[in-house]
Design a protein that fits this description.
This protein is α/β, with parallel strands linked by helices and about 800 residues long. Helices cover about 40% and strands about 10% of the residues. It has a 24-stranded parallel beta sheet, with no helix packed on it. The radius of gyration is 31 Å and the shape is globular. The termini are far apart.
Length: about 800
C-alpha cells in the first residue's frame, strides 16, 4: 500500500544543495542561538551546521575533545572562557586542525608551556594569528617555540613581562612574515630586541611598544621600515628630544602615530619624528607635554591629518589657530580635559574645520554659548559630540545643537544645564544611537517620552542620577526603541518594577545598570531575565528589594550573563548558589551582602566553573580554607579583596547636584582635606622604633648637624624661593598656623613653589620681620635609622605631593 504524499510532505530543503544551505547559515553568524536552533532541527541540519562552522569558542575545557570531533573545519579557536588551557589541550587542537587552523586566542588562558606552543606552531602551518596577551608567566623558552610558526602574521604579547630580548630575537628570526606585533608592557625588552624585530621583519605594518624602557637607538631601524603604518609609543620615558634630534628622517609610510604620556617629547622631538611622514592621518599626543605655538611647525607638512587627540594637554590659542589653519581636512578632534581651551580658540577652529565629524570637549570648563554657536554653525556634518561637564554651556546652546547638527549619531551632555526645551531640540537628530544625559536634573518624563518616538535607532541611553525620571519616561523609551542594548538608570529612585517590565520588550538588551534604585524588586528583574536572553552585564548594587527570587530567575534564563554586581543586596546563600548554573559568568562583585555566610560563599565558589574574577570583603579571607583558594587558582580564578567600610548614601535626594559646580567641588575638597589631616596626624604621632643599643646621643647629634649643614649647602643662593617660603609661612602665621607641619596641610611644598606672582618687596620684608622670631630652623628630613617596616615619613611625603596636586587641580 502506497503512502499518500499529502500525509508526508517532502521538506523543501531536500532539493537545496549544500552550498545554498551554507549561504543561508552565513546570514546567521551574528546570532549564535539561531544557528544552534538550526542544528537541532534534524540530523541532516546538524551535520551541515557542523561542516559549516568556522569558529569555535568552548565554555568548558573538559568538552574540548567532543567538540573537536564534531567540527572538522574550524579556522578560529577562542579560549577566553577557558582560563586553564594546559599543553594537552593545545596538542589536541593542533592535531585536529592541522590543515585548517588560522588563528587562536589564548589571551585569557594560562598553565601552558613551550610544549603546547611548539605543537601549535609546528603542526598548524596555516596559523597566521596568535594572541598571547596577559601571559605573565610566558618565558623566553615559550617565546622561542613561537618562532616555529613560519607563516605567522599577527602576534599579540601584551603584559608578557618575563619575555626578554632573547625570546623576541628568536621570534624575529623565525617569524619573518610578521605584519603586526604588540609588545605592550613587556618591560624586559630593550632596544636590542626591538631592533631585531625591525631588522628581521621587513613587512611590519603595526608596532606597539607602549610602556617599554626603550630609547631612540631602536627608532632608527623602525623608521626605515617601508610598510610601517601604525606606531604606538605610549609612555616610553626613555625617548626624549635629544635622542630624536639624531634621527635623519621619519617613516614615509607612517599613517598612525601615538606618543601619549611621553612627557619627554616636546614639539622639537615630534618634528624630528614625523619629518617626511606625509601620509600621517592620525596623531595622538594625549597627556603629554604642553602643546605650544611651535606646534604649528609640525602641522605645516601634515595637511592630510584626519584625527588629532590632545587629551589632558595644556593648549593655547596659537595651538588651536595652527590646527584650524593647517588641518582643514580634519575629521576627528579630541580636546578632553585640555586646560586652555577657550571660546576664542574653538570659534577660530570651527570656522575652518568644516569637515569635522567627531569632537570631544569633555571637561573644558571655559567653553560657553559662543563656542557651541560656532561649532553648530560651521560643522554641520558632526556625527559625534562629547561635551560632558561643560558647566558654562547654557540651555540655549543645547537648542542650537539640535537645530543645526541633525546628523548626530552620538552625543554626551552629562552634567550640563539642559532642560526640556533642549531635549526637545535634540529630538531632531533622528540618527542618534548613543545619548548620555547623566546628572541632567531638569529632564522630565514629558520630553524623555518623545525620545522614544523620534530616536528609534537608539542603542545606548545613560540616565545616571536623573532624579525626575519615572516609569512613564522609561516605558516610552522601551516602546519606541526596540534595538536598545544598554541603559543606565543608576540612582533614579522613582523607577519601579514597571520600568523593568517595559524594558523586557527590548530583546537585544545587553547591559542594565539599576544601582541604587530602591523601588525595584525581584519581580522586575525576573521579567528582564525571562525576555532579555542576551543580557551580559548587570549592576544591582544597593537594590534592597532584589533577593533570591531574582537570582533564581537569572540562573534559569540569563545564560549569557558575564558580569554581575550584588553588593548591598539582601541575597542569601541560596541565591548565590543558584547563580553557579550560569556557565558564562566570569566577573562577580560581592561586598556587604549581609545574607551570605562563609559556608555559602565556599559552596558557591566551588560550584562556579568559569569564574575568573571575584571581589570579596576581607572579612571572608580568613574563613575560606587555603585548599579552596588552590582549587580556584587552578581553575584560573583571581581574588580581589576589598576592605571598604559599609557605605551610607550621604546625598540620597541629590541635593548637592543642584548646587553650582564650584560649590560642590569646594565641599568635596574640604572633606578630603579634613580626612587627610586626620590620617597625617596619626602617622606623625606613630612612635618609631629606635636603636639605642647601637647609637649614642652624641652620634645622633652629629648626624643631625651634618644633615643641617648639607641642607644649607644645597639651598645656598636660592633667595627667591626663601622669600616665597617666608611669605606663605607669614600668611599662615597670621592665621594661627605657624608650624611647618600645618604648612604642609595648607598646600605642601609644591604649592609653595606654585604661588602666582607673590607679594611685592615691601610686603615680603614686612612679613619677614614679623615672622623672624617665630620661624623654625631650616627644615630638614629627620634622621631615622633603617627599620624593618616601611617608614611613615615616606607615605607622608607621598600624601603631601598628592594633596598639592589636588589643590592645584581644584583651583584651576
Amino acid at each position: 500500500m502506497e503512502e499518500d504524499p499529502a500525509l508526508n510532505p517532502i521538506s523543501p530543503f531536500v532539493s537545496l544543495s549544500e552550498e545554498i544551505i551554507f549561504t543561508i547559515l552565513d546570514c546567521l553568524n551574528e546570532d549564535p542561538q539561531t544557528k544552534k536552533s538550526f542544528s537541532l532541527v534534524c540530523k541532516s541540519f546538524h551535520s551541515i551546521e557542523s561542516q559549516h562552522r568556522k569558529s569555535l569558542k568552548p565554555l568548558y575545557i573538559e568538552l574540548i575533545s567532543r567538540i573537536l570531533n564534531r567540527y572538522p573545519q574550524i579556522h578560529h579557536v577562542d579560549l577566553t572562557y577557558c582560563p586553564r588551557a594546559e599543553d594537552e589541550v593545545l596538542v589536541s587542537i593542533s592535531s585536529a586542525y592541522r590543515y585548517t587552523l588560522r588563528s587562536i586566542n589564548l589571551s585569557r588562558s594560562r598553565f601552558f608551556t613551550h610544549v603546547g606552543l611548539s605543537s601549535l606552531a609546528g603542526k598548524c602551518w596555516r596559523l597566521v594569528e596568535l594572541d598571547l596577551s596577559n601571559a605573565t608567566e610566558l618565558t623566553d623558552a615559550q617565546a622561542a617555540a613561537i618562532a616555529e610558526a613560519k607563516n605567522l602574521e599577527k602576534l599579540w604579547m601584551a603584559r608578557c613581562k618575563l619575555v626578554s630580548d632573547m625570546g623576541v630575537g628568536c621570534i624575529a628570526v623565525g617569524c619573518k612574515k610578521l605584519r603586526l606585533i604588540c609588545l605592550k608592557w613587556c618591560v624586559r625588552i630593550t632596544d636590542l630586541g626591538v631592533g631585531l624585530i625591525a631588522r628581521k621583519c621587513k613587512d611590519i605594518q603595526s608596532l606597539d611598544l607602549s610602556y617599554l624602557l626603550i630609547t631612540e637607538k631602536c627608532l632608527a631601524p623602525i623608521l626605515q621600515l617601508q610598510q610601517l603604518k601604525e606606531l604606538i609609543l605610549v609612555e616610553c620615558p626613555g625617548i626624549d628630544d635629544e635622542g630624536l634630534r639624531t634621527l635623519k628622517e621619519g617613516c614615509k609610510s607612517l599613517e598612525v602615530l601615538n606618543i601619549s604620556k611621553c612627557h619627554n617629547i616636546s614639539n622639537v622631538g615630534l618634528f624630528s619624528l614625523i619629518n617626511g611622514a606625509e601620509r600621517l592621518s592620525h596623531l595622538s599626543l594625549a597627556y603629554g607635554s604642553a602643546v605650544t605655538a611651535d606646534f604649528a611647525k609640525c602641522l605645516y607638512k601634515l595637511s592630510g591629518l584626519k584625527s588629532i587627540k590632545l587629551d589632558g594637554c595644556l593648549v593655547t590659542f596659537s595651538t588651536m589657530k595652527a590646527i584650524g589653519d593647517w588641518c582643514v581636512s580634519l575629521k576627528e578632534l579630541s580636546l578632553c580635559k585640555c586646560s586652555g581651551v577657550t571660546d576664542e580658540g574653538i570659534s577660530y577652529m570651527a570656522q575652518r574645520l568644516i569637515l569635522l565629524q567627531k569632537l570631544d570637549i569633555t571637561c573644558c570648563h571655559k567653553v560657553t554659548y559662543a563656542s557651541i554657536d560656532s561649532i553648530t554653525k560651521s560643522c554641520t556634518t558632526l556625527t559625534s559630540l562629547r561635551m560632558e561637564a561643560c558647566s558654562m554651556v547654557s540651555e540655549e546652546a543645547i537648542v542650537l545643537i539640535g537645530q543645526r547638527c541633525k546628523s548626530l549619531e552620538e552625543m554626551d551632555i552629562t552634567g550640563n544645564n539642559i532642560n526640556d526645551a533642549g531635549l526637545e531640540s535634540i529630538l531632531r537628530c533622528s540618527e542618534l544611537f548613543s545619548l548620555k544625559l547623566g546628572v541632567c536634573l531638569n529632564i522630565t518624563d514629558c520630553r524623555l517620552s518623545r525620545v522614544g518616538v523620534y530616536c528609534q535607532k537608539l542603542r545606548e541611553l545613560d540616565l545616571y542620577r536623573c532624579m525626575a525620571i519615572t516609569d512613564v519616561g522609561i516605558t516610552a523609551i522601551a516602546n519606541g526603541c526596540p534595538v536598545l542594548e544598554m541603559i543606565n538608570m543608576a540612582y533614579c529612585d522613582k523607577v519601579t518594577d514597571g520600568s523593568l517590565i517595559s524594558l523586557s520588550q527590548c530583546l537585544q538588551l545587553k547591559a542594565l545598570e539599576i544601582r541604587g534604585c530602591p523601588c525595584v524588586s525581584s519581580v522586575g528583574l525576573s521579567a528582564i531575565a525571562t525576555n532579555c536572553k542576551q543580557l551580559t552585564i548587570l549592576d544591582i548594587k544597593k537594590c534592597c528589594n532584589i533577593d533570591d527570587t531574582g537570582m533564581v530567575s537569572l540562573a534559569q534564563c540569563s545564560q549569557y550573563l558575564k558580569q554581575i554586581n550584588l553588593s548591598y543586596c539582601p541575597v542569601t546563600d541560596v541565591g548565590l548558589l543558584a547563580l553557579a548554573s550560569i556557565s558564562r559568568l566570569q566577573n562577580m562583585t560581592i561586598l556587604h551582602v549581609t545574607g551570605l555566610t562563609s559556608n555559602g560563599i565556599l559552596a558557591a565558589l566551588l560550584a562556579f566553573r568559569g569564574l575568573m574574577k571575584v571581589k570579596l570583603h576581607t572579612s571572608f579571607k580568613s574563613l575560606i580554607p587555603r585548599s579552596v583558594f588552590t582549587v580556584m587558582e587552578h581553575r584560573g580564578c583571581a581574588f580581589h579583596w576589598r576592605n571598604k567600610a559599609f557605605q551610607v548614601e550621604t546625598d540620597p535626594k541629590g541635593w548637592l547636584l543642584h548646587l553650582p559646580r564650584h560649590e560642590v567641588e569646594e565641599k568635596w575638597y574640604c572633606s578630603r582635606l579634613r580626612l587627610w589631616k586626620q590620617r597625617r596626624l596619626m602617622d606623625i604621632n606613630r612612635k618609631l622604633l629606635s636603636r639605642d643599643d647601637c647609637w649614642t646621643d652624641e652620634a645622633m647629634s652629629t648626624l643631625v648637624d651634618a644633615c643641617r649643614r648639607r641642607y644649607l649647602e644645597l639651598n645656598r643662593g636660592l633667595r627667591l624661593r626663601r622669600q616665597k617660603l617666608l611669605c606663605v609661612m607669614g600668611r599662615l602665621h597670621l592665621r594661627g598656623l605657624s608650624s611647618r607641619e600645618e604648612l604642609f596641610v595648607a598646600g605642601g611644598e609644591d604649592e609653595v613653589d606654585a604661588e602666582e606672582g607673590g607679594s611685592d618687596g615691601e610686603e615680603m620684608e614686612r612679613i619677614e620681620n614679623e615672622t623672624a622670631l617665630s620661624l623654625p630652623s631650616p627644615p630638614f628630613m629627620p634622621v631615622i635609622l633603617p627599620q624593618k617596616r616601611p617608614l611613615p615619613v615616606v607615605r607622608i611625603r607621598w600624601m603631601q605631593r598628592r594633596e598639592s596636586r589636588m589643590v592645584r587641580k581644584w583651583r584651576e
